[in-house]
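hey so i finally got around to running both of the ones u sent me last week. sorry it took forever, my laptop kept dying halfway thru and i had to restart like 3 times lol. anyway pasting them below in the order u listed, first the sequence line then the structure token line for each. didnt double check formatting much so if smth looks off just lmk and ill redo it

first one:
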Amino acid sequence: MTIYPELTVTIDNRPVQWEEIKHWKAKRALVVLQLFADYGQKVILKNQTLLQDTFHDLSDDDLIQAAKETKLALGPNKILELLQDEFKKSDEMWHQIIARTPQDAPLKEMHIQLDVKGLTIAKIAQINIQNGFKTGLSNKEIAILEKAYDLHPEHYVFSQKRNIQDVVETFGEYGSPTHFNLMMLDAKEEKFLDKIDPRTKKIIFGKGLLASDQFDIQQYALHQFIPTKDGLHVDLGLFAPAGVPDAAIVGHQRHFAIEFSSLFINILKQMHSQPE
């Protein structure tokens, strides 16, 4: 039985509890730790360096924490430097995907659903989910990175200027980490009007471009927040080129489940800790 009954996640009509999603998160944390170990970097947990032959035996919680601490210790500039070869492989993959996608082919579409009892859009904005991990970064930088790292282990780099997010993550648990820019746009102006639920009160909509050459990878995220009688319903939508392998689409379902479940679990933890 889940310890967070307020949160319901539905993937392909199957309810998935937080405990299963957290295990997915830990498995992706292990991938991150192994990647950095392969590049000769130290794996850090509780300010201690772990031997490579020991971190595979960590608990789910410790794997997730070690991925966060290791990335914070490296810092975004070092991570960008280390992963240059990964970016080249990923850029080539995306160019090949677009090249093999027929020009008029419809986008592949994927959704997952989250329902959170006792939560409103206004309450999300009010809750502070920073954890205060200490590094040499500025307070603003660490606040942004901590939030990104808390949500998913495969968030390697994250920053935002105006409506452009600079992001490194592995798309759909498929291939190498991608360095891309996510342009935050108006879904209605981008001809996604027919995809918007009329009950929606808040929309997050973004379009992906490769950071290296601003190549349009024709990937869109459309997330809709819909108030309900007892809380909030969230529809997480992904639209991707027809040439994207189905395995990557399924993988990004898990990515969204990890990312947004982690967000709402952090919020629920704070709500539970507050006096009635």
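and the second one:
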Amino acid sequence: MAFKKQLEDYRFNLNRNRSWKYTAVLIFFFIGFLSLLTSKFYLKTEDPLYHTKTYEAVSSNITGTVTIENRVYHPANGSLDMVIKMDQTDEEEVSFVAQEKANPNIKLPVHLVYEDDGYYVVRISDLSSNWKHLPLICIKKMKKKKRSMWMT
């Protein structure tokens, strides 16, 4: 009986030489949490499309090469004008969709102001006063070719 009592005391007493295991586990968890808290500094998780620089070409498999050449924000009427250059062929139509990152469920009205030889001037309206990120999605569609039959 006395042996069983000593064995139970030995198992649950952390003041003996066996406490190094618990210290090692605590150090492991501390290092793990510390690495998660500081991961922003050594892991690059930012998407380059959120911060597209002016005159920097962004290439994609779907849209080809897209370059934002100019941006003008009009705070009085809450609109943003963008000059965009895209690689495009004559058989493709381009449309744009814009959303604020703060309100992803609301699609903003996008008006194509000017289009000429791959250059597009796009006006995005109804921006909120505190917008920070504005994803602009470029959609290319093939123009439907009309088939006509000539009867002679």
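quick thing i noticed on the 2nd:
Residues 146-152 have pLDDT under 50 and may be disordered.
anyway thats it, ttyl
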